Amino acid sequence: MIKGKSILVALATLSVVLSNAQGIEKSLYAFDFKMDGMSVPERSRLFAELGYKGVTFAVKNDGQRQKLLEYLGSPEFSSGKLSIPIVYFPFDFSQDYASERELWKKTLNALPKNASLWVIILEPNATEQKVIALLKEMTAEAEKLGKDIVLYPHDNTFIESAEESLTYIDALNTNNLYTTLHLCHEMRAGNGNRLLDVAIKTAPYVKFASISGTDVTMRENDKADWSDAIQPLDKGDFEVEKFVSVLQKIGFKGKTILHTFGIEEEPKNHLSRSMLKWKDMVEATYTNFSNNLDQILDTPENAYWDTGSKSWFISNLGGEKVTIEKDGYGWITRLDENGNVLKNRWVEGLDAPTGMSSHDGHLYVADRGVLVKIRIEDGKIEKKIPLPGSRFANDVAATPEGNIYVSDTYENSIYRIDNKGNVEIFLQNEELECPNGLWVDGDDLIVATWGPMTNEATFETSRKGTLKTVNLKTKEIVAVGKGLPIANFDGVVKYKGFYYATDWVGGRLLKISETGNVNEVLTGFVQMADLGIDPERGTLLIPEMSKNRFIKVDLESF
């Protein structure tokens, strides 16, 4: 049951300003499978008529290179209305290596300006060592021509998913090797339920994406029947909008290509329907991403009020899960004083930001192993201050003098960064019982503990956490009240002589007196995370992590 007279569960908001205001590129390209009954000029006219921006296909032999020339010579391509951004080359290690080498070099040299070479590594006789050697030569040759090599993950080949391609990108460490996010092949790889996770991990290297209608359940396809994974965009029981939404969320800036392999329908019919579906999805997912709070927020961890800027800041772990991974997919959302979104992703590129505090025009954010110093005026990251030995930097509190304290939950530690920038472990003691929330209260640091953790993977504890005070001069640790287990605490603030703290596991907001008496203010929520307070108005903002929303509470109503 939810108690309380004045709370607002924020489900939607207005006045959004996005950092990537255009969203993903709206252009759509297409494979030209099953179009053999049409001449190349007829295909070019059809693609242009239906609103496509270009085409792709295999280019390996002389006939396919001639097809490439025919496309480039058609009026639609010669005028620049259509283009060929990439062509694919299936490399077969079971064939004569010298012959395959000669063929890919011919294709690479035949590419039009700004086009890339897509490489499928067929499985027979392929090894990691051979593939690395091949890609090393390909990228070197491509670099001479100002070209990129793009891996083409494909079911039942040597590299089957975008994640697998990272092995080779990391091994070569060159600036012209990329990969592709194919919806159909990620479905075949069993990644239909983790598309965002895959996209986050591969995002820096994804230059192209391919899309198709698809079913949720993949069948065995011994006869190369792809009718489950490759369909027109208006068919299939998988919500393909999810894939478009993933591209929006990672800020994909590459080109998207409609996959058409095996589609038996008349080309004009299915291509026209897919184009209409694509336009609707791009618009709808961008609007949703721009205006719906459950899409703007992603696993929100902390809400913090900055008096100087009259702004609320919400940290987002990102990735639709509780994570402390260093994945670069975390951000800060900025709200106005009434909780309306001012900027969707005010600061991006963080790993898994958690607690925050501010001082002298700067926001200090706990991230993986660092404290991030951000200038509030323009959102510029001025510095990332390393926290030696930190594994789970969690909450942040600042004193009026500008000394910053950071809790590390896994290490039973509290760091101190003084106003000159010096970093030290201020306190490391098992009595801290996995410290989480912090609040400066005069000469004391109030510490909301999670409880002694028995399993870091699941955050299980041997008993609930408590509230404690740590004297900032003597470092003496004293329990608030009798020190009895109360909750798995996340955040804590103080207002008019009472502490307000969130019970993450129990989904409760608790009011605790200085003598330790506990009262429930709100119950019935899920994963109530680190709260913030506007002390002038007595307003709390509490992220509800699993629901991607926040709860606004007027304490003057209680």
TrEMBL record:
InterPro entries for this protein: 6-blade_b-propeller_TolB-like (IPR011042), Xyl_isomerase-like_sf (IPR036237), Xyl_isomerase-like_TIM-brl (IPR013022)
Occurrences of domain Xylose isomerase-like TIM barrel (ranges): 124-269
UniProt entry keywords in alphabetical sequence: Signal
Residues annotated as signal peptide: 1-21
Recorded superkingdom: Bacteria
Transmembrane segments: none
The name this protein goes by in its record: TIM barrel protein
Originating organism: Flagellimonas marina
Species lineage: Bacteria, Pseudomonadati, Bacteroidota, Flavobacteriia, Flavobacteriales
